[in-house]
Amino acid sequence: MSCWKSFPAMCSLLLLFPLFLHSSLALVSAQGSNSTALWQTLSGNAPFVVARGGFSGLFPDSCGVAYNFAVMVSVPDVILWCDVQLTKDGVGICLPDLRLDNATDAPTILGTNRSSVYLVNGVRTKGLFTVDFNFKELENVSLIQGIYSRTNKFDGNEFVILTPQDVVNQFKPPGFWLNIQHDVFFTQHNVSMRNFVLSVSRSIIVNYISSPEVGFLRSIAARVPRTTKLILRVLGPTDTEITTNQTYASLLGNLTFIKTFASGILVPKTYIWPISNDGYIQPQTSLVSDAHKAQLEIFASDFFSDLPLSYNYSYDPVTEYLSYFDNGKFSVDGVLTDFPISPSSAIDCFAHLDKNAKSQAKPLVISNFGASGDFPACTDLAYSNAISDGVEVLDCPVQITKDGIPFCMSSINLIDTTTISQSPFINRSKKIPEISSNEGIFAFDLTWEEIQGLTPSILNPYSKFTLFRNPRFRNSGKFITLPDFLALAKNASTLSGVLIHIEHAAYLAKDQGLSVTDAVFGSLSKAGYDNQTALKVLIQSPDSAVLKRFKQENNSYELVYQVDMSIGDVLNTTVVDIKSFANSVTISKSSVFPENQLFLAGSTDVVKKLQALKLSVYVETFDNEFVSQAWDFFSDATVEINSYVLGANIDGVITSFPKTSARYKKNRCLTMKETPNYMSPVQPGSLLQLVTPDYLPPKTAPSPVLDDKDVAEPPLPPVLAKAPAPAVDSGPTASSPTSKPNGQPKLGAGAGILFLNLAILSIALLPF
Ligand SMILES: *[C@@H]1O[C@H](CO)[C@@H](O)[C@H](O)[C@H]1NC(C)=O
Ligand SMILES: *[C@@H]1O[C@H](CO)[C@@H](O)[C@H](O)[C@H]1NC(C)=O
Ligand SMILES: *[C@@H]1O[C@H](CO)[C@@H](O)[C@H](O)[C@H]1NC(C)=O
Ligand SMILES: *[C@@H]1O[C@H](CO)[C@@H](O)[C@H](O)[C@H]1NC(C)=O
Ligand SMILES: *[C@@H]1O[C@H](CO)[C@@H](O)[C@H](O)[C@H]1NC(C)=O
Ligand SMILES: *[C@@H]1O[C@H](CO)[C@@H](O)[C@H](O)[C@H]1NC(C)=O
Ligand SMILES: *[C@@H]1O[C@H](CO)[C@@H](O)[C@H](O)[C@H]1NC(C)=O
Ligand SMILES: *[C@@H]1O[C@H](CO)[C@@H](O)[C@H](O)[C@H]1NC(C)=O
Ligand SMILES: *[C@@H]1O[C@H](CO)[C@@H](O)[C@H](O)[C@H]1NC(C)=O
Ligand SMILES: *[C@@H]1O[C@H](CO)[C@@H](O)[C@H](O)[C@H]1NC(C)=O
Ligand SMILES: *[C@@H]1O[C@H](CO)[C@@H](O)[C@H](O)[C@H]1NC(C)=O
Ligand SMILES: *[C@@H]1O[C@H](CO)[C@@H](O)[C@H](O)[C@H]1NC(C)=O
User: Fold this and answer.
1) Cα–Cα distance between 526 and 528 in angstroms, integer?
2) Whole-angstrom Cα distance, residue 545 to residue 200?
3) How many beta carbons lie within 10 A of that of residue 403, not counting itself?
4) Strands 208-211, 175-179: pairing kind
5) In whole angstroms, what is the distance from residue 223 CA to residue 361 CA?
6) Comparing C-alpha atoms, which of 362, 363, 366, 385 is closest to residue 374?
7) Cis omega (within 30 of 0) on the bond before 604?
8) Is any ligand 2 atom within 6 A of the Cβ of residue 116?
9) According to the UniProt record, where is the region Disordered (predicted)?
10) Scanning 92, 379, 383, 511, which has the fewest C-beta atoms within 10 Å of its C-beta?
11) Sign of CA dihedral 409, 415, 421, 425
């Protein structure tokens, strides 16, 4: 049987990764001879990765591609998980639910009029039950995506329903796990799960069998091969185990009893790290050590990188996994996951990393408004946390107050990043077409004293997906002046530089009489940045005129030109132009890997062309929230960063979550002779090749080519002499000769990034 019908030649999915061979040798060296000392699992070995229905986070649960892909991108001892259901004629199939409705096209193929209503553990349930059909009747039913927030673009592949024997014979998994969610139900319908399981475990090697039903496990305990381990799957604490009539909480109260018929337990992850109502991790329970004391293995379930994680993990799935097996106190024996690539890299590349491990990759880690993924942008908290998170270049977007004080704030419009719209200052709101088409309350209309009194407000760029950032700290922190920022940075021994971002300089000079360039010069020189070499100074601007002005003044600063639109290419003459006033260029992620409906469509030559003239290329903005990443990156920020670094050779990442990028640079998989697949860059465009024509997104026009006139700008206008003299000591206020300002209105950055279906709001939880 081919793994799917339409494109059997693609079964192996070799296209997806440039390195497709399993590098088990590299792994042996990675997990190391003395790894036993490291892991606090029951066996002392590394924890297992159990792939639920294969790589079900991306492909339809339990389909051949999902299983095959999980084997390809996971640790070499990955375990494939199959939820077994029985057909009317007693054939076991791998399917996530005992109804065909959700994860297959059965309603169309078989007709919904063949639905039944049955009691499932006492609950009336309607649907197309597998137990109503003979196996042969399901031959034309295909597996499709059953979770509405995940992409349905692979549904045209006619993935066939597989039996456990198919999975083992076709994909030769290193480990295999059968989950029997319902035994009582099938017994009531006169098919025997026990017979099926006992017979199948004589024909293939089954490493684990789990069930939430104690009676089932006890009934097979004496009959399964000794190499097969039985695991009690624990449901909610107040759910009743139907064969003993005890709640799972009370069953867990006697681990000795569980040990009489099982060698381990599988528990939802919150049994180990409970989560508060507001989404924060609470102190760990003693369950892992209790289980280990009772000589029971303990596996944790419910790892979904595409659901909101606890805020403690900053939307970084690798951090979450590490908290379950590299926390210094205990380690679970395995994790049940829909995204097996993430625990694989967590185990092999990141666990037990030395704090002082050396960097293994070049990208400069540049913050985006400090650690703005966790704290209000550009506050003292965002900055001090970025430093402790390991940022290398700390950024300050400079705004200037009415009284001429330069300070750091992510936007010139105070509404974007403070609670000012709920304050009496609302009467200072106005519309300035040169800056934005929307009304705003602008930094240059308030004094520094007034701005200091404002309450910061955390950025929530993904709020329309109901993904919010660190709510307990949403209004914490203080804004700081540029001189204070420079002092803070100078004091941090781990930084390699600061990035000062300048926008709207022409408008501020011409219309507000404020010279932001002079304020920056003055602050840098006063803070002693002119005479030192410890900290690099990067001046970034989307305006070439600003960079030219700096170039006249000081040659030791690195000048960074920000291309603030998505581009598909750049003319060679334009690169030469840019080279005349800049040392590096910041471009958007989509200018490297263009996307179509969240699938990578390919890659551009922009990075190569810029680097050919020795311009460094920084890329913005790397966020951890999974909705900000293409499907190709498997809802894992580390996979995205790695693909840009190894796949596109970029020189720096600009990120709201510097911790993730800083950790990425130290990962030990980068030093292995053969890079394991889970640390190989994804091949842009390859995932799209697995989409059948009927599901392909419409082709989109390529992004524009950056040309000379996009870059050309008149010099900065002179500073209008209407405002009071800047309170900050700055150089001479005189500026370049007269000329018209750059009249291009700049619309808010980052417009139109995402088109993910809003169905994510009504996310369908997994069918159990
Ligand atoms: C474990 O490995 C480290 C280096 O990775 C080495 O320094 C140490 O001696 C080893 N320990 C044992 C017990 O082999
Ligand atoms: C179900 O509906 C189809 C047409 O939609 C019909 O051909 C078939 O006979 C119906 N089957 C039953 C059992 O009602
Ligand atoms: C499946 O489809 C084939 C081809 O269309 C058809 O011959 C066969 O009868 C179908 N099987 C079932 C069970 O409907
Ligand atoms: C199962 O078999 C019993 C006895 O043979 C019969 O009474 C019962 O109706 C059957 N149940 C189902 C769901 O087929
Ligand atoms: C299970 O326990 C409940 C209350 O404790 C009782 O009402 C019910 O009859 C019991 N069921 C069985 C099958 O023992
Ligand atoms: C726990 O289970 C063991 C084994 O079944 C039994 O001997 C013991 O009495 C139970 N302990 C309690 C507190 O119920
Ligand atoms: C999770 O974050 C909250 C808020 O920062 C903190 O109070 C709590 O201690 C953290 N939980 C753990 C287990 O570190
Ligand atoms: C705004 O409101 C404050 C009082 O809330 C008042 O003192 C101030 O004059 C008003 N400013 C403008 C421009 O209307
Ligand atoms: C610099 O660091 C020292 C010690 O870490 C601290 O006492 C001092 O307050 C810091 N200064 C500034 C300006 O942050
Ligand atoms: C920095 O160097 C300039 C001359 O290059 C000198 O005038 C100034 O005093 C120096 N500042 C410091 C803080 O050393
Ligand atoms: C542009 O520059 C690249 C590398 O610098 C070179 O390979 C390419 O041929 C040039 N293209 C044109 C049209 O000159
Ligand atoms: C599964 O399908 C049924 C309809 O057959 C629907 O009511 C239910 O919500 C679906 N469950 C999930 C988890 O999508």
Assistant:
1) 5
2) 73
3) 19
4) parallel
5) 52
6) 385
7) no
8) no
9) 702-744
10) 511
11) positive
Parallel, antiparallel or unpaired: strands 264-268 and 297-303: parallel
694 burial class (0-12, 13-18, 19+ CB within 10 angstroms)? exposed
Q: Which two tokens stand for residue 673?
A: 């002779």
Residue 450 burial (CB < 10 Å; 0-12/13-18/19+)? middle
Q: Say yes or no: CB of residue 488 within 6 Å of ligand 9.
A: yes
Strand partners, 397: 501
pLDDT tens per residue across span 444-467: 999 999 999 999 999 999 999 999
Looking at ligand 7, which residue's alpha carbon is closest to its atom 14?
281
What is the CA(166)–ligand 3 centre distance, in A? 20
Burial of 611 (0-12, 13-18, 19+ CB in 10 A): middle
88 lines ligand 4 (CB under 6 A): no
Helix or strand (DSSP H, E) at 513: none
Instruction: Give CA–CA dist 96/102, Å, rounded.
Output: 9
Cis peptide before 270 (omega within 30 of 0): no
Give the residue ranges of the chain where pLDDT is below 70.
Answer: 1-37, 722-768
**What local confidence, expressed as pLDDT, does residue 577 receive?**
97
Contacts of 572 (CB under 8 A, 6+ apart): 609
Nearest CA to ligand 12 atom 9: 764
**So what's the pLDDT on residue 732?**
39
pLDDT one-digit tens code per residue, 275-285: 999 999 999 99
- Nearest-angstrom CA–CA distance, 663 and 655: 13
Residues in CB range of 230: below 8 A, 6 or more apart: 208, 209, 210, 217, 220, 221, 224, 261, 262, 263, 264
CB of 253 shorter than 6 A to ligand 6: no
- 318 CA to centre of ligand 1 in angstroms: 25
Position 532 scores a pLDDT of: 81
Ligand 7 centroid, distance to 310 Cα (angstroms): 10
Report which residue type is found at 583. Answer: N
Q: Dig out the tokens for 152 from the structure.
A: 């349905």
Span from the CA of 100 to the centroid of ligand 2 (angstroms)? 17
Q: How far apart are CA 388 and CA 372, in angstroms?
A: 13
Report the pocket of ligand 1 as residue ranges, CB < 6 Å. Answer: 34, 37
User: What are 172's two structure tokens?
Assistant: 């030769």
Length of the chain: 768
Q: Which of 734-741's residues contact partners 24+ apart within 8 Å by CB, and which partners?
A: 735/509, 735/515, 735/517, 735/518, 735/549, 736/549, 739/714, 739/715, 740/714, 741/434, 741/506, 741/507, 741/509, 741/510, 741/714, 741/716, 741/717
Closest CA to 632 of 668, 602, 660, 604: 602
For residues 294 and 262, the answer to whether their CB atoms sit within 8 Å is: no
CA distance 39 to 106: 45
**What tokens were used for 452?**
């200091």
Match 């303990």 to its residue by tokens.
298
Whether the CB of 137 sits within 6 Å of ligand 3 = yes
Give the closest residue (by CA) to ligand 12 atom 1.
102
Residue to probe by mutation, ligand 4, list 187, 190, 191, 192, most atoms within 8 Å of CB: 190
| pLDDT (0 to 100) of residue 722 | 62
Select from 680, 463, 511 the least CA-distant residue to 23: 680
Which residue stretches of 554-587 are H helix? 572-581
Return the structure tokens found at 93: 């199939």
Ligand 8 atom at minimum distance from 428 CA: 13
Distance between Cα 531 and ligand 10 center (Å):
6
Q: Are strands 123-127 and 116-120 parallel, antiparallel or unpaired?
A: antiparallel
Cα-to-centroid distance, 34 and ligand 1 (Å): 6
With both helix axes pointing from N to C terminus, report the angle between 516-526 and 505-512 in degrees, rounded to the nearest 10: 110
Q: Which residue's CA is minimally distant from atom 13 of ligand 10?
A: 528
